[in-house]
Amino acid sequence: MPRRRLWIGLAVLVAVQAAAIGLYKLKRGGHVESAPFSSETIAPRDAPALAFERADGQRGTLVGVRGKFVMVHFWATWCEPCRDELPGLLIRARELAASGRFELLAVAIDDDWDAIGRFFGGTVPRSIVRPETTDIHRRFGASTLPDTYLVDTNGKLVIRYAGARDWTDPRARAHLSRAIEMDERRK
Questions:
Q1: pTM (global) more than 0.85
Q2: Residue 14 pLDDT level (bands cut at 50, 70, 90)
Q3: Nearest to 150 by CA among 81, 47, 60
């Protein structure tokens, strides 16, 4: 009899957890669970030295793209909010990069290019990079993924976006455009 109660208890626990997960996914509707579009203004400070590699083997540095407004986005293929957020971020970044004043460095924290390549079906966008050091996200201040930072044209960290965002939201475009314009006025 005690064994049967144990099995019944376990079955009830599993059913309650499955229902909770189902309600959570239903509420999300398969989209990024986005906080209101918000940001944290950072007292300008030098961005940490970021050296990276692109999928084609080309190497670069954050200093090498100075003069552009750079979004440094930390993510991983195993991070569900990152996977949900990244497609919208890539779309927004392509749109802003058309001006020649903006660049996205989506820094994958994955262990190797194989997982990243599988995630993109074999064609990894140029914006996706892997860091040469494993702790670079911590030097920026990231403690969870995804985490995103804007670096001004002088190489200073100026804005942080903690957590996932819906980058296709028109408020995201307006916010980023204003940040770029403000940076240009300071010159």
A1: no
A2: very low
A3: 47
